[in-house]
Amino acid sequence: MALLKERVSLVTGAGGGIGRGVARAFAREGAAVVIAEIDEQTGLQVEREIRELGGRALFVKTDVTSKASIEVAVQSTVAHFGSIDILVNNAFIPTPNVLFEHKTDEMLQQTLTSSLWATWWAMRAVMPSMRERRWGRIVNFYSIDTETGAWLHADYNTAKSGIVGLTRSAASEWGRFNITVNAIAPTAMGATFFKLAEENPGFAERSAAARPLGRCGDPEEDIGPAAVFLASEMSRFITGETLHVDGGLHLPGYNSRPANVPVREY
User: Fold this and answer.
1) In order of start, what are the domains of the chain with their CATH numbers?
2) 64 near 39, Cβ under 8 Å?
3) pTM to 2 decimals?
4) So which residues are the signal peptide here (predicted)?
5) How many C-alpha atoms does 262 have within 13 Å on its Cβ side?
6) Is 266 in the active site?
7) What backbone torsions phi and psi does residue 120 show, to the nearest 5 degrees?
8) Which DSSP helix (H) or strand (E) runs through 205?
9) pLDDT, tens only, 121-165
10) Which of 3, 142, 156, 170 could form a disulfide with 185 if both were Cys (CB 3.0 to 4.6 A apart)?
């Protein structure tokens, strides 16, 4: 039996990478999927892919830096499919990888808006529908980068720390409506991974070797099932949890210090 049969989901940033993998995994388990994506070309492509799989899909052009745009995506979901049962907050807009002292206020603002604020807005927008149905699943995305204090990601690490606090707060308060709120800390071969692999020979091999499982994750086959689990009845007694889906990378952690940065400068 399909684990998400007759459920309706909205996945932000579903036009590629992990978002696309989660959207396709949801469709395979019977869920209707709304692809909330700013890139029309990739969003429509994923919509076509899901329909070719025999699933139900709808692309809604969505700018997660806009509260109004997120609210329209939620309203469109309910109008088209009649409800919204599952929300996955995946989208964010990256900033240049530079040292903390070179990060600008504008970079931090962009990251906070596209990640933390976007998650806040989306969660509040879906809550009334979930509350009315007395059932809801919210899956947010965290990052191991925050735990390791990843270099060049000061703004990203800051925003993702906020995601954990928001996840736990909502889990505490919305459990009374039978809404669970959990987070996934994933690593997978998405657009950023392939860009780094192209720019840094041997990156893919080193990345795989750093994980106890000895390989890099696939967005659909490795991250998707974890999201399906948290979106289904199988996780009905789990809320406020952060699940590492990274091939065990969180166990040894990793050193992200750029090679050109001295260990000491004093």
Assistant:
1) 8-245 (3.40.50.720)
2) no
3) 0.97
4) none
5) 3
6) no
7) -60, -50
8) helix 203-209
9) 999 999 999 999 999 999 999 999 999 999 999 999 999 999 999
10) 142
